[in-house]
Structures
1.
Amino acid sequence: MTVTLITGANKGIGFETARQLGDLGHVVYLGARDAGLGAKAAATLGARFVQLDVTDDASVRDALATIESAEGRLDVLVHNAGVLGEGIVDGPKALRVFDTNAVGIVRVTEAALPLLRKSSNPTVVTVSSSMGSFWAVTNPDRPEFAMPLALYAASKAAATMLTLQYAKSQPGIKFNALEPGTTATDMTSAFGIGRPAEESAKVVVRLATLGPDGPTGTLQDELGELSW
């Protein structure tokens, strides 16, 4: 059995990723900040719930300790938790967005590394964004060029860079970031755009199920590697 942890998985892309990986036979630990919503989502999917707030060190440690006690290892980690940070830009909002979208990756990865090292095919997937790609946001032909999401874009650039740096420092573990495609979720509801979450989850699942010889240190979308 492949043991998988997905953060921010009680709804949206995370929930659909949990569903699809569960259908593939993974033992899925559905991480969510809200215990009530997370437990309900896990029960719906037949997954296992762990309370996990990526902005809280104790919560992250406890979640990984639960998985260690039950499974002894972790094969796949999906960094899915994130916030948009739209609207007025100020210091407190910037701290919250970066704490969730970037620092949270560090918290969870560092706590998970000992368990990932016990896997025969350890894989980490970061749900990033092409909004964090300098190539995309400076290209007038790309939709990212006109999106007014400074904090989200900057924090996703950091998320992708963290993924690359972990790939370099942890050569025995695959680390890849992805652009899942514009998706209709709670985060994008104000824009009225996006495809169903189950379609974007397929991109996550592809990178979460790479074989031992799969790529590492990349930013990808459903068509392949992206410039960034």
2.
Amino acid sequence: MRIATYNVEWFTYLFDKNNELLQDDSWSSRHNVTKAMQVKALGLVFQSMDADVVMVIEAPDTSPHRSGTKALENFAKHFGLRTSKALIGFDNNTQQEIAMLYDPNVVTAVHDPQESEAAPLFDQAFQMDLDIDAKKDDVVFSKPPLEVALTTKAGNTLRLIGAHLKSKAPHGARNDADAMRISIANRRKQLAQCIWLRARVTDHMNAGQSIMVMGDFNDGPGLDGYEKLFGRSGVEIVLGESDDAQLALFDPHAHAVMTQPFGARPTTSRFYVSREKRFLNALLDYIMVSPDLKAKSPKWHIWHPFDDPECWETPEVREALLMASDHFPVTIDIDL
């Protein structure tokens, strides 16, 4: 069985008000890429992945006038994908939903949000003292994680959590000092979201449930200088690196960076930095699994157009990956 996570840059702009694909020569959100070009590229990427389940980050908007699930199902139908059913959790106001496409002949899936004293529902508020003033602040998700109860055709059950955590970038900063202040504040909020997410993971693992946590964390071990200020990255918090080893999640790419910080770093995204006139590669997307799933010897794969030999040696896939999004899919093949 193949499960994927894929951040599709501004997927919502590729659909009209009737949730139908836009395939014209108007510009998409991708630099120098039309909507028709991005749609075609995405179709080829999804077809090449041929996944049973795809957690879609930055999925099409859900609002009173639009349906993200209908848009994704129209996309799947247009390209003849097996993942013909779509699922969404709590919608948000960012026009970037977290949704899931899946093959109904392989799995059944339902949105199944949970809550506990340690971790409230993801569309509510989590209280934590962010600025060390002895007063608890309300932490909220701009994009509440998607919690899925998944059952495979073989009758196996597992929990999937799709996440798109807060960016730490200092948007709106007026000067260097302001940028530092915003960056630190954003880092606090991002880490608080990770603590909240980790509490949910711990609840599931204490209940003996198999779990995968996947998506775009906008963070990772050794990714920026502010990590030293706070001691660890948000990814390490969600993995449970400082907790009981039996409750720790595993992702091989995060593990590689943590154990060999000066070695080659796997990457899942590629951004153009205009002021430096170069591309920046970063490891932002993960599929973390519980110990029982790790014991099944799954195989992870980053669909990187330059780093993965199969993608590089297949020109049409390589070009489609570069055109489709600023992130690349991550897949896991596992016997379920």
3.
Amino acid sequence: MIGGSAGSLPPLLDLVAGLPAELPAAVLIVVHRGDHASGQLASILSRSGPLPAGMAEDGDPIRRGRIYVAPPRRHLLTGYGWIQLRNGPRVNRYRPAIDVLFASTVRWAAGRTVSVVLSGVLDDGAVGAALVARAGGRVLVQDPAEAAFAGMPAAALAAAAGAIAAPAKDLAQGVLDQLARVTGATGTAPMHIHDAEADMGMADSDPGYLAEGESRLTRMVCPECGGSLAQVDLPQISYFRCHVGHQYSPQTLSAAQAETAEAKLWGAVAALEEQAAMLRYLRDTTGGGNGNAEEVAGRAATLREHAQRWAAPLPGEPEEPPE
């Protein structure tokens, strides 16, 4: 299994080029890319190495020596030797998400899995890598020092016990070496992770309900739907999910909260400016407004300055790249 985001295409091509035609495993790939780019990825990978690559289709049997690429806007899962595609809640703000692929494969194949995390921003893949390691599988990450964006490989390296960092040129050999080690391996069964649909709706539970594996409810809410977030603890990383099934690793939750806060600030700016415009209209047409239009406009301008400062990156902080 391979996951990547911004800056992951060059190391992915190097990895695929180094795999043998007789690879004794299937390769499943989730890369955060736009819809058009995702549609082209399978053909690019087929031309880059000896293994045939194709867009994954629901119900496909998983065959050795083949590459399956997640299609746009659908989670890629594996179950008992078959491809499953789902339109479930976004995980780490993505669908398809790397964590979903990793977790589903561990449930089916236990420790007989090798996961690879390539360049990317934030930490999608970290929780999935931790589950792979916990089940006895192997985790490889692109060396963060050479990755175009070190966030994802560094997060997976910290979260997964025994994870190995390797330069991009060595990843293919690393996959082969680790495959030899996981044949017949067993490990601890993975903890529950939302991978497709919510297990239950809010109407079926009381407000204090904790699903399997959840350690506690938090005061935070889901940035996407507003539902309460529960915390799930793994040995080296914790993550958060709501009852609907949206799920966040720590760095991704922080980024999503920042986006929500910025959106609320700009919403407040818009509301104040609309109020000021209405007060000016009343003043000019009816003599009403009591002179409050300028005061409200001043508050809007002040809040706009706050919003602009909030939206600006911190010194030394890279802006998140496009998919």
